[in-house]
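Milestone 3.1: sequence recovery, worked example.
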């Protein structure tokens, strides 16, 4: 049984940092591209970043967020710096049963096979 578990969310002030973690079990982690998504109240889920042998970022987080992975620990991370109130959302981790991020990594949620329950990030102004 595959499990995807996010952690590291919380309440921070604008300009501060958080590091999210996502640990996956029940699959061969290195064979999966991993994505981070977020969904704010009343808005659609949006792609934040994807990592395989290369990385992709949404324009809104480029230069502030960094995705990384540790295949030995079956974990993907999202380091978030210079957080802003507009970054407030539930953050989700997702696993794609391909070893690469597709060009539609952030627009086609159906390509991800497993999702976590999310971790809340709230940024106060």
């Amino acid at each position: 049984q595959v499990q995807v578990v996010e952690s590291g969310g919380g309440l921070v002030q604008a300009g501060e940092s958080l590091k999210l973690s996502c640990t996956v079990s029940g699959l061969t982690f290195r064979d999966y591209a991993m994505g981070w998504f977020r969904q704010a109240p009343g808005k659609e889920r949006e792609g934040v970043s994807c990592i395989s042998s290369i990385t992709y970022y949404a324009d809104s987080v480029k230069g502030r967020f960094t995705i990384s992975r540790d295949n030995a620990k079956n974990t993907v991370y999202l380091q978030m710096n210079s957080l802003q109130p507009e970054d407030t959302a539930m953050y989700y981790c997702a696993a794609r049963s391909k070893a690469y991020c597709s060009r539609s990594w952030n627009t086609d949620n159906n390509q991800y096979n497993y999702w976590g329950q999310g971790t809340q990030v709230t940024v106060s102004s």
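The two ends are 40 Å apart (CA to CA). The first strand starts at residue 3 and ends at 7.
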